[in-house]
Amino acid sequence: MAQSFPLALLIELRQKGDVMAGKPRIPINGGPKFGQNPFAVLSSEGLPQAPEGLPADPVDRLAAKPAAPRKNRGRVDILRQTAGRGGKTVTVVTHFVGIGLPEKEMLVKKLQKVCGTGGTVKDGQIEIQGDKRAEAARILAEAGFRPVMAGG
Asked: What would you report as the CA-atom Rg of the chain, rounded to the nearest whole angstrom?
């Protein structure tokens, strides 16, 4: 380093507090604080007030909503079958009452997405590839059904 720079230039740079070719040095005294809130200087003057009766915190507003009562759409049985399928396990959902083919197909699409497997509607039953009874029970419960694990 001493060979490539003339001695007078090195002395001048040291006096300025800059040793490396005119680049500014990083302060070691802490510098600016990063933990400051950038919105601290803002005020709410001139903004309309929140309506009465609503909590000021949006999280409280979500918790304050009463949960709508779940509609009981009936019992559905969730079976695990391997017979007649070449040893492959299939989850079968049966005994749907009052539900049409389009809604069953929507449920199958949702189950396929959640389970990450294939599935279909055959003879009024939903069939999902693999042993996915727990996932099927959760999705059906969210849809308002009362899932029951039946069989082995």
From this structure: 34
70's CB contacts (< 8 A; 6+ apart) are: 144
CB 101 within 8 A of CB 121: yes
Is the separation of the CB atoms in 72 and 146 below 8 Å?
Answer: yes
Residue-wise pLDDT for 43-74, tens only, equals: 888 888 877 776 655 555 555 555 555 678 88
Find out whether 82 and 88 touch, Cβ atoms under 8 Å: yes
Which amino acid does the sequence have at 9?
L
CATH assignment of 75-149? 3.30.780.10
Q: Where are the domains of the chain?
A: 75-149
pTM higher than the cut 0.70: no
> Which residue, chain included where needed, has tokens 């609503």?
54
